[in-house]
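User: Design a sequence. Structure:
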């Protein structure tokens, strides 16, 4: 509780905990120096939307839980990685939250999409109830793949953001599938979604000539989530270099991962340590103030970020990327191809132009024909125990 009320002055003092190292600090595609850019690092971290356990929110489903303490950590991590996509979509990667400064309307539109009530697009209520269709009862722990699948379904209702969400299964990203998804000619959300023009010339997160641009180059902004298992019970060291590179890409949304009671949202790394936001703090649910304005300080982590050794990462993760334009996606593909040439870095997933046949590609998990998709995904990605087997490596 003490940390939630730290002032900015005590932060300067506290922040000395950050290692004094020549190694660069990478935060979601941005490179910083600890020696010259401490304030900037902290501001970047604080600006991410931080979702934690909450208590005393309206009962989920009308009669269900009023708190997610103890079970909602991966759902909160899913909210954080998706909120980062919405921030990039509507505010841009350079946007910063400054305590006490009046924020633009689009910021509150993004935040409102995650508030703990049943009619927010990505609320804990929506995620928990949509998860029932994925075989998860309300109050049950999710793995990274389940939360990704649920968020993909919820995003279809978010016409304001008009996102294309792709979840790459079987460790394979198929470029053709993504292009087809992003080029399905659905126009950007119209004026009704966001009637006021932002003072900085942004309209609904798009430049004013969006209607014209949609006709010339229809591309829905892409959220790409890749559920992975990087080892059996602990992360295989051969993947560590590749994982670090994911945080260096400008398209990075970070990584969600962990096991029950220890899910985290990883936003960067320094040296051999991952930097993450931790959802395991219970805060009271937030109600809009008398003015209708949402008190937002508890949605920003205002103390130095947590760190842990990369070697301690649970092998079950989902990596996220955001490509606002087709050029962003093409650039991402080029970076992934280059990464496959880095010595000592084992690719975490394969990038292919077209869907390979499972039988001609021995590297892809062979699927037994009688196992249903749901069982297979559950066993492979969300396993809380270790009795699954990897059929071919």
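Assistant: Done.
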């Amino acid at each position: 509780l003490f940390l939630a009320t730290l002032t900015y002055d005590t932060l300067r003092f506290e922040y000395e905990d950050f290692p004094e190292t020549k190694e660069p600090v990478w935060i979601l595609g941005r490179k910083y120096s600890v020696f010259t850019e401490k304030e900037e690092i902290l501001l970047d971290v604080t600006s991410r939307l931080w979702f934690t356990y909450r208590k005393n929110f309206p009962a989920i489903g009308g009669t269900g839980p009023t708190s997610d303490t103890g079970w909602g950590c991966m759902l909160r991590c899913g909210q954080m990685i998706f909120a980062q996509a919405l921030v990039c979509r509507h505010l841009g990667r350079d946007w910063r939250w400054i305590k006490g400064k009046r924020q633009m309307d689009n910021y509150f539109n993004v935040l409102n999409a995650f508030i703990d009530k049943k009619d927010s697009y990505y609320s804990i209520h929506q995620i928990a109830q949509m998860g029932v269709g994925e075989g998860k009862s309300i109050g049950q722990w999710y793995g990274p793949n389940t939360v990704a699948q649920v968020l993909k379904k919820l995003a279809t209702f978010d016409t304001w953001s008009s996102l294309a969400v792709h979840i790459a299964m079987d460790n394979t990203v198929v470029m053709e599938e993504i292009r087809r998804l992003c080029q399905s000619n659905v126009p950007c959300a119209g004026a009704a979604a966001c009637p006021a023009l932002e003072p900085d010339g942004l309209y609904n997160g798009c430049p004013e000539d969006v209607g014209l641009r949609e006709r010339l180059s229809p591309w829905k902004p892409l959220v790409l989530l890749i559920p992975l298992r990087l080892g059996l019970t602990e992360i295989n060291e051969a993947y560590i270099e590749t994982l670090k590179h994911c945080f260096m890409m400008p398209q990075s949304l970070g990584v969600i991962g962990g096991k029950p009671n220890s899910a985290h949202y990883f936003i960067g790394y320094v040296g051999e340590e991952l930097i993450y936001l931790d959802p395991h703090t219970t805060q009271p649910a937030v109600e809009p103030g008398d003015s209708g304005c949402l008190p937002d300080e508890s949605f920003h982590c205002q103390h130095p970020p947590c760190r842990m050794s990369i070697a301690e990462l649970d092998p079950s993760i989902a990596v996220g990327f955001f490509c606002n334009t087709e050029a962003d996606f093409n650039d991402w593909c080029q970076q992934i191809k280059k990464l496959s040439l880095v010595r000592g870095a084992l690719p975490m997933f394969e990038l292919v132009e077209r869907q390979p046949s499972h039988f001609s590609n021995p590297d892809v998990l062979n699927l037994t024909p009688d196992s249903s998709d749901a069982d297979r995904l559950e066993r492979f990605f969300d396993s809380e125990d270790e009795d699954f087997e990897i059929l071919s490596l």
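Residues 1-16, 188-210, 359-380, 383-393 have pLDDT under 50 and may be disordered. Residues 28-183+218-357 form one domain.
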